[in-house]
Amino acid sequence: MDLAIIGGGPAGLRAAEVAAQAGIQVQLWDAKPSVGRKFLVAGKGGLNLTKAEALHPFALRYSHPGKSATFWEELIADFDADAIRAWASGLGVETFVASTGRVYPKELRAAPLLRRWVERLRSLGVKFQMRHRLVGLRRDRRLQLDFATADGPVTAEADAVILALGGASWPETGSDGQWTGFLKQLGVGVTDLVPANCGWECQWPPELLPRIDGKPLKAITVSAGSSVAKGELLITRYGLEGGALYQLGPALRAMNAPEIAIDFKPHSTIAQLV
Question: Which of 36, 94, 231, 274 shows the greatest Cβ crowding within 10 Å of its Cβ?
Answer without folding.
Answer: 36
